[in-house]
Design a protein that fits this description.
mainly alpha
């Protein structure tokens, strides 16, 4: 359903949300923190920048940051950018009168509601909690 490229974009956005207010994040830092191949990340960050989700600063002290607040960007925004419509049944002549069109429309609405309700601020917070929890867990 969701391509690797889209998953990498979501991971990169979580990292940028975690860095919000702390300064710029380099491609190398994002790639290392989120286990994203650099060659994919460069292209992903360019797409995110071109679509107004990130900003970049060039130079030795450069890097990336979110173009707007993490609570103003949803997972649905990024999924649609990289995948297109969340649920797109085939378009055929029969589709216009297909009784299943109602089902496809309901599926689109349900998925949109879930993905659009989760901001990157929330994902960053959950990620930080998960990291702390994993650090506290140990076996004897």
């Amino acid at each position: 359903m969701v391509s690797n490229r889209c998953q990498y974009a979501l991971r990169a956005m979580v990292e940028l949300a975690r860095q919000e207010g702390k300064g710029l994040a380099t491609i190398a830092e994002i790639a290392r923190a989120r286990h994203i191949p650099v060659r994919f990340l460069e292209s992903i960050l360019l797409t995110l920048k071109q679509n107004g989700f990130t900003r970049s600063v060039r130079g030795k002290e450069g890097g990336y940051l979110l173009a707007r607040s993490a609570d103003k960007i949803s997972a649905g925004d990024i999924i649609r950018l990289f995948e297109g419509p969340l649920f797109a049944p085939r378009k055929t002549a029969e589709a216009a009168r297909d009784v299943l069109a109602t089902l496809w429309g309901r599926a689109e609405t349900a998925m949109s509601e879930v993905f659009d309700s989760v901001s990157f601020r929330e994902l960053a917070r959950l990620d930080e909690q998960s990291e702390r929890s994993a650090a506290l867990h140990f076996d004897i």
